[in-house]
Amino acid sequence: MILVSACLAGLDSKYNGKSNYNEYIERLVREGKAIMVCPEQMGGLPTPRDSCEIVCGVGGDVLEGKSKIIDSKGQNQTEKFLKGAEETLKVGRLYNIKKAILKSKSPSCGVGKIYDGTFSGKLTEGNGVTAELLVRNGFEVITEEEFSAK
């Protein structure tokens, strides 16, 4: 069993109310091999919502209280992202899952690279909050880009 970002399976859960549909991810869900999660929705954010980025740090910094996540209007959304990360971890533990395929570049789900907090489209090295929490708890976490390359 694998955790997957719901937007990759075709659920319209992305910040703009759309999805990042990936037919292979959707097939895993349909075949009962994957469970969909959307940390942003699980943390209480609406869909659609203003885009969010981690300011002055990466997911680990947010988990350690050294950085925050703001939306494009300047509102602090850190608590909702932290709650969503914790809820996602709970789902993984409930189903004894240790692998996840998450949406690249996201402040929640990004692995390896995320947007840099300037809302300019620039990337920085690091993980999103949920991805980092999962990694710290022993999960193997990859992006859909890495999954598609296999």
From TrEMBL:
UniProt cross-references to Pfam families, sorted A to Z: 2-thiour_desulf
Entry superkingdom: Bacteria
Protein name: Uncharacterized protein
Taxonomic source organism: Ruminiclostridium papyrosolvens DSM 2782
